[in-house]
Specification:
Length: 99
């Protein structure tokens, strides 16, 4: 490899190193915002249906996300599983193929 090729490779490596650092910093900032929102009992996510904010509320002993604008309710897979386990009426089992 010639000196010019080596210099080009070094510049390319430096470019991608800077891009990686920028991406890492953006992720750290998003994680910080999410942690602050969680500590305040809010979600850092917006409602998928409207422009509202998702707020954590307790339903049957499980924390779920509810929109403060349209009242849409959103469940993570783990939250849904917990509700199914706590279901005494069999409602969830009938809807989603359980026994």
């Amino acid at each position: 490899m010639s000196g010019l090729e080596e210099r080009g490779k070094a510049l390319e490596d430096e470019y991608f190193r800077k891009k990686d650092q920028e991406a890492i910093e953006k992720l750290r900032q998003k994680m910080k915002v999410a942690a602050e929102a969680k500590a305040a009992g809010e979600s850092s996510m917006s409602c998928p249906r409207c422009t509202g904010k998702l707020v954590e509320v307790e339903f049957e002993g499980v924390l779920i996300d509810r929109c403060d604008n349209c009242s849409g309710t959103w469940l993570d897979p783990g939250e849904f599983s917990e509700l199914v386990k706590k279901d005494t009426t069999g409602r969830f089992h009938r809807w989603w193929g359980g026994e």
